[in-house]
């Protein structure tokens, strides 16, 4: 069975969409092909890499990319992870369903380093819960193993 392709779309493709891609790849790469892109890519945020590493997921090899790079690919599911991306989301040919997760931008967090990292961790954990729900909703039904 072919993997379901899912695109996470954000404004800068530096934090939220990158973390969502990382979680889906880590938790269900056998069923899903996770990708991410941005409307105005800013580069992978080092704090996003750090807080994902804290939960055992390495996203350091992912790269920030513009949504236009992926226009020729077919994504049955496009998930916007910020309100700005939802408002300016390009139309992806063949997309069956658009979903929206309104997530705070951790890159915009103010305060001390610890306070900013606390925002990154909170958003990371929110994304984790959204991805778990997505997997539960979309994962193909598992048939029990046939016993002989």
- What is the helix tally? 4
Question: How many beta strands in the DSSP annotation?
Answer: 4
Provide the β-strand percentage band. 5-15%
CATH architecture: 3-Layer(aba) Sandwich
- Named CATH topology: Rossmann fold
The coarse silhouette is: globular
Task: Indicate the structural class.
Answer: alpha/beta
Assigned CATH superfamily: Response regulator
Major β-sheet, in short?
4 strands, parallel
Task: Assign a percent range to the helix content.
Answer: 25-40%
Low-confidence stretches: 143-148
Rg of Cα set:
16 Å
Strand order of the largest sheet: 2-1-3-4
Which CATH top level class fits? Alpha Beta
Domain module count: 1
Our measurement of the CA-to-CA distance between the termini, rounded to an integer number of angstroms, reads 24 Å
Write the H/E string, N to C: EHEHEHEH
């Amino acid at each position: 069975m072919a993997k379901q392709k899912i695109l996470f779309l954000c404004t800068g493709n530096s934090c939220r969409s990158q973390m969502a891609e990382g979680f889906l790849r880590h938790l269900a790469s056998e069923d899903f092909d996770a990708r991410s892109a941005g409307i105005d890519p800013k580069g992978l945020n080092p704090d996003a890499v750090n807080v994902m590493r804290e939960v055992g997921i390495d996203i350091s090899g992912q790269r920030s990319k513009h949504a236009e790079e992926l226009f020729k690919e077919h994504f049955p599911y496009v998930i916007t992870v910020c309100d700005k991306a939802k408002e300016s989301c390009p139309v992806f040919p063949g997309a069956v369903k658009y979903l929206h997760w309104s997530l705070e931008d951790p890159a915009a967090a103010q305060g001390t380093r610890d306070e900013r990292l606390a925002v990154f961790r909170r958003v990371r954990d929110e994304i984790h819960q959204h991805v778990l729900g997505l997997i539960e909703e979309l994962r193909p039904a598992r048939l029990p193993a046939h016993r002989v």
